[in-house]
Predict the 3D structure of the following.
Amino acid sequence: MKLLKSWLAKILLILTGILAGLLLMETFAVATGILVQHASTQRDFFESIQYDSRLGHKAKPNLKDLKMVWKTAGVSDIIRTDSSGFRNLGRDYTKSNLYFIGDSFSWGEWVNEENTFPRLIESELKQPVINLGIPGYGFQQYEFLFQDWVAKYKPHTAVLCIFANDLTKGRTVFTSKSKFDLTKKAVQLPWYKKTFIYQIILGNNKKVDQGLSSNKRKQAKNGLFLFTDAGADKDYLTSGNAAVEIEAALSRIIDLTKEIRVHLVVFLIPSKESTYIKDYVDLFPQELEVLKNEEIGYQRLCELAKSQQVTCVDMTEIFRQNSDGEKLYFDMDTHWTLAGHKLAAKVMYPSIIQGSREISKDKEE
């Protein structure tokens, strides 16, 4: 009996140690922003979007001063949208000759709207610019935006801004209303209800989207956190379908713009990891395949665009050349700082101006 009690005590001690270890790990994760690193921003995100059967989701219309805060990262944003759910308040869609199509980079995550690259270019042009960027969008949504907005209003120039995580097969975040509602409900739970311990012991093992990132992340000497899975899919070039589907989508967009005689310009936005490639190599020497997928994937997209006489600019090398100065990306977040938006606007402006002149001349003839 004493021996049995001794074994039970040891087992109990081991289990207690395991649970304590898990609790310590999760406490560390919360403290460092790994667990539900966007806890508050996820909730705010669902305050700013609504389900859409065609697009998966879209920004809510007529938002007025919706404040989003990510305290851990020290960033915040104020969201204002027009009646169509875009950040084009006070701008006339019928009078703009320049449309931007993209995701959260075009939207301007964590940057004052007037400091985003579409608005910086607007300031240089001294004419209204329409920004159709929405966080979480990919090629499927880009096609719809070209069909619904660019084809309708036919601006002189449409700019497609592609980010590395667009090199992903079937990137629709919410495929159904039920998934949208379930995810929204999950992110609204308090953080402790999303932990492993709560779910196993008190939550009846219910499956909840914990918001945990599968990315490995490490901090570089310059203070930037870099991730292993922040860009292209690891199997983007080897799956057999992903690259083919993305390139086919770009081809359809090119065909549409030619049909409606809108000048198309394509810009390829480098991931933070690719921009700070030297730091990435030091931190993740065994994870370089992801960056190769991004680089080769971008090369293929530009070759496709240029073969159809479409201007394509891969901004990777320019961002790398400017990576030693002011930080171009936020420390914890993957998006551009004000310095990143300024550099992007500087790179984009000449190609946009040249394209506008060419299409105007062509239309006059």
About this structure: The domain at 85-172+219-364 is CATH 3.40.50.1110 (Rossmann fold).
